[in-house]
Design brief:
The complex is a heterodimer. By secondary structure, chain A is of the alpha+beta class. Chain A has one domain: Winged helix-like DNA-binding domain superfamily/Winged helix DNA-binding domain (Arc Repressor Mutant, subunit A), CATH 1.10.10.10. Chain A contains four helices and three strands. In chain A, helix 1 packs antiparallel against helix 4. Chain A starts with 11 loop residues before the first helix and ends with a helix. Helices cover about 50% and strands about 20% of the residues of chain B. By secondary structure, chain B is α/β, with parallel strands linked by helices. In chain B, the strands form four sheets. In chain B, strands 4-5-8-9-10-15 form a six-stranded mixed sheet. In chain B, strands 13-14-7-17-19-20 form a six-stranded mixed sheet. A five-stranded mixed sheet of chain B has the order 6-12-16-11-18. Chain B is built from 16 helices and 20 strands. Chain B is elongated. Chain B has four domains: about 100 residues, no CATH class; about 100 residues, no CATH class; about 110 residues; about 170 residues, no CATH class. The chains are: A alpha+beta, B alpha/beta.
């Protein structure tokens, strides 16, 4: 059913996910060279993306920022596939993003934890 | 018939329906327009095209060569409309005009946390409650009013299942407060109304195109109805399975209890006991066939069908795979059992094949008297069993089995009309056997006494058989011929015995009867 495509800003849950998708894509590629379908499967499992179309602009952006490169690989079941691979600067960026992420979690947890304690 | 086009999508050749082609082309054009301002838009579009080709390629098979509008609809639902992609990607450039402006909270059935169809779970998500509470409320409603089940089925039909990630995200709503509930209910109602209205005003095909999702409202309803019916069918099967299990198990236990004599005997009423199978079998075939043998045959012939009833019930409830060859094996064993049963039936018949009969006339001192008295022998050893034992029925024969395992058979008294004006009495003893000689031997084993004095006939209360003697249908008939107009009187203690006498004596409380033109009748003077 697709009559409900509008997500307004109140849906903060969805928004929070959006912020971290790039980090997640980078992390997936860093683990192992991947092509679009691999990444989609993982993101869908984690419920990080709603529609697959979201992924491609992000992949292109990562490539344009030189965080990833891609190569073509022959496939048994169809036309050649585009495999994405992380670059050195990509690894650096990922490390920074990860650190930022953990910092963010700690900070947020602190505040959330404080408020729940206060409210008790 | 439809025209198809051949297209090259991401390096793969597809045959595609004309209308599906226009739909796909429109979609790709929209994407192109959408990404035109972004850096590397060509890359993005190529990637998306490749992915679409991949998805469509998975749908292709030997039997399905042509891409239809349904396929394209599905692909678009997976990939997302430009607006959706945009929202996921960059919330700042969100374009509200493209959406339908509805709130982000919606009612869905939750397929990830369901007991039956996820209705309760969906409600719980919607209201921010623990699904357990919603389920309890539904259960209580179902038990108390019964309408809970109907309501559930109705909701199952109406509420779509959350299929995509966006559905699942929307399933969760804002925190619950009165205004929000009111607002969202109003929204739901007007949404439903407008959807139904749309259905009516536009043709189904247009709607399908417009919705571009996985199907129209009616299709969803139809799909849900099929789902509900399938569920109800499953419930029915499980219910039937439970009945079969209980029936099979109950009958199996009852059958085993009877066959193996767990209850000793089955009391049918205050006066009679129906013998349990081992005792009855011991009487009927005792000296010639082991009872265990008959029990085993019955176990095969009756036990196997009951067991299969139970097994099939289990299968219907727990839906496990059939055990291979079980049915055939059981059937074969059952046929063997049937064969053995037939064989033993013939064998039992042979045990009773020959019958011997002996008639002894008993002389009366005073055959011309007006009233013949019939009483029990005062010193008979069987008298002590007169009141304190339950009768056991073998066929229509009343018997008593003593604590010493002796069989006492109650004699039959038959009243006939005399040819002349004198009373006469005969005693007919009978027995069966597998040969004439054996039948004769059984006849000779019968212990029964009678004596006359004046106008009184005294008889033993029981036909006794020695302890080691087998019962082969030994019985005694006492035939009393009463002249017309004369009377017969039964002593009080004989009435206690309730012998196998015939109507009207058996149903009357009187003890004196007269032979009339219509046969024996209650003495009119009394």
């Amino acid at each position: 059913m697709y009559y409900i495509c509008s997500m307004n800003t109140e849906n903060q849950n969805a928004q929070m996910r959006k912020g971290v998708i790039e980090l997640c894509i980078l992390a997936i590629i860093a683990q192992q060279d991947a092509y679009a379908s691999d990444i989609i499967i993982k993101l869908k499992e984690a419920r990080l993306i709603v529609v697959e179309g979201t992924l491609y602009p992000l992949l292109t952006r990562l490539k344009n920022d030189s965080l990833t490169v891609y190569r073509w690989e022959e496939s048994k079941s169809g036309p050649p596939r585009k495999y994405h691979q992380i670059t050195e600067s990509g690894r650096k960026a990922l490390a920074e993003l990860k650190a930022d992420w953990h910092e963010l979690i700690t900070s947020v947890d602190k505040i959330i934890g404080d408020t729940t304690n206060n409210s008790k | 018939m439809k025209k198809t086009l051949t297209i090259n999508l991401g390096g793969i050749i597809f045959h595609i329906d004309e209308d599906a082609y226009f739909l796909l082309n429109q979609y790709l054009e929209n994407l192109k327009k959408h990404f035109s301002q972004q850096e590397g838009s060509l890359d993005i579009l190529n990637d998306i095209e490749s992915r679409i080709a991949e998805i469509l390629n998975e749908k292709k098979s030997e039997t399905k060569q042509v891409i239809t509008t349904e396929d394209v609809d599905e692909v678009i639902a997976i990939m997302g409309q430009p607006v959706e992609i945009d929202q996921d990607d960059n919330p700042k450039t969100k374009n509200n005009a493209a959406g339908n402006g509805k709130g982000d909270k919606r009612f869905f059935r939750n397929p990830d946390d369901k007991v039956v169809a996820g209705v309760c779970s969906g409600i719980a998500s919607y209201l921010h409650l623990d699904p357990v509470w919603v389920r309890i409320v539904f259960l209580v409603f179902s038990l108390v009013v019964g309408s809970g089940i109907l309501l559930y089925l109705l909701l199952w039909v109406i509420i779509p299942e959350a299929q995509t990630t966006s559905d699942k995200l929307e399933m969760r709503g804002e925190k619950i407060n009165i205004r929000n509930i009111e607002k969202s209910i109003r929204e739901e109602v007007s949404e439903l109304r407008s959807r139904v209205g749309n259905m009516a005003s536009e043709s189904a095909a247009t709607i399908k195109r417009a919705s571009a999702g996985s199907g129209s409202f009616f299709e969803m309803i139809g799909k849900n109805i099929i789902e509900v019916l399938r569920f109800l069918g499953k419930c029915l099967i499980i219910l039937a399975g439970i009945v079969l299990i209980l029936l099979g198990l109950g009958l199996l236990i009852a059958f085993a209890a009877y066959t193996f004599g767990w209850t000793g005997g089955i009391y049918s009423d205050n006066d009679f006991t129906v013998l349990s199978f081992p005792k009855l079998a011991n009487l009927l075939v005792g000296c010639n066939l082991p009872v265990v043998y008959l029990q085993m045959i019955l176990l095969l012939v009756i036990g196997i069908p009951l067991l299969m009833l139970f097994y099939n019930g289990l299968r219907m409830v727990f839906n496990f795979d059939r055990i291979r060859h079980l049915g055939l094996t059981m059937f074969n064993i059952w046929v063997v059992g049937l064969f053995l049963l037939t064989w033993s039936g013939m064998k039992i018949y042979n045990l009773y094949k020959f019958d011997e009969k002996k008639q002894i006339d008993i002389a009366l001192e005073n055959p011309a008297c007006d009233t013949l008295n019939v009483a029990l022998m005062a010193d008979d050893p069987g008298l002590k069993y007169l009141r304190n034992e339950k009768y056991v029925l073998i066929g229509d024969l009343k018997t008593i089995i003593t604590e010493k395992k002796e069989l006492y058979v109650i004699p039959k008294i038959r009243i006939e009309e005399s040819d002349d004006s004198l009373f006469s009495i005969s005693q007919v003893i009978m027995a069966h056997g597998k040969s004439r000689y054996e039948a004769h031997q059984h006849l000779a084993s019968i212990r029964f006494q009678s004596a006359t004095a004046g106008s009184t006939l005294r008889i033993s209360p029981f036909v006794r058989l020695p302890k080691e003697e087998c019962w082969r249908g030994q019985i005694v008939d006492i035939v009393i011929r009463v002249p017309k107009g004369k009377f017969i009187h039964f002593d009080e203690n004989l009435r206690d015995l309730k012998p196998c006498w015939y109507y009207p004596m058996s149903s009357s409380d009187n003890s004196t009867f007269q032979m009339t033109d219509n046969g024996i009748e209650v003495d009119p003077d009394l």
